[in-house]
Amino acid sequence: MGKNVIFTLLTMLYFFIYVVTSLNSSTDEYALLAFKPKITSDPNKFLAKNWSQGTSFCNWIGITCGTRHQRVRGLNLANMGLGGTIAKEIGGLSFLRSMIISHNNYRGFIPDEMGKLSQLREIEMQYNELNGAIPTTLGFLENL
């Protein structure tokens, strides 16, 4: 009888981990899909052809995911000729370590929500049309 209890507990634990991981992956997908419509210029159709719900976001152009939990670890959209603004939902990518969007035509402000990216170690935004002050929330990111 003890083996059945252990088996049941392990099965429940596995199911719980699966559900939590799936929910967190949905958060990453939501953040990326909120980021996409803020791109108003995609002359080479990099995102238009590739970033869709029919494909795992870990296979999207410019996205790197961790192998263990399939969470977004890297966002590299440099030199793609993209234009638009940075969506505040980008702050939902809680495992993001690297964000490289340099050499594009992003404009507007850097969202305060980027201060939630506690894992962020690298950020490259040069050669865009961003304006305004750098959010003070970025100053709290210890790994930058």
Automatic annotation (TrEMBL):
The keyword GTP-binding does not apply. Its main location: membrane. SUPFAM superfamilies: L domain-like (SSF52058). GO terms for cellular component: membrane. Gene3D superfamilies: Ribonuclease Inhibitor. It is found in: Membrane. It holds the Pfam family LRRNT_2. Residues 26-65 form the Leucine-rich repeat-containing N-terminal plant-type domain. Keywords: Leucine-rich repeat, Membrane, Repeat, Signal. Residues 1-22 form the signal peptide. PANTHER family: DNA DAMAGE-REPAIR/TOLERATION PROTEIN DRT100 (PTHR48060), L DOMAIN-LIKE PROTEIN (PTHR48060:SF21). This is LRR receptor-like serine/threonine-protein kinase EFR. It comes from Abeliophyllum distichum. The lineage of its organism: Eukaryota, Viridiplantae, Streptophyta, Embryophyta, Tracheophyta.
